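Sharing a chain and its predicted structure for anyone who wants a worked example. Both blocks are below, sequence first, tokens second.
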Amino acid sequence: MFLTELNKSVRRRLDDLANIAANGDDHAVTEVARSEMPHLVEAVRRLMAEHEPNERGECPACSRLLQRWRRPLRRPKSPCRVYLAARWALFNESPSAARRAAG
């Protein structure tokens, strides 16, 4: 129950900020950018820190998930999904466009 409420509150806050950015007047957008942008950047940095590649270039968080399922020899087939999602969002890329550019 707690995680459901936590998820809803975070998503609601992100929706509110996205709505102001898309539909707010210039003053509202400027004020929200100044007050909320540092928090958003810090949230992304903390999330990415949990997925920082180790000395083998693997994501320890994603690798732990594989070990949890008792497949320790299986490595992730693709880069860490957290870093991919951050890249796609920050550079306004779509997953399909990124795959086409890579291959």
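Comments welcome. DSSP finds five helices and no strands in the chain.
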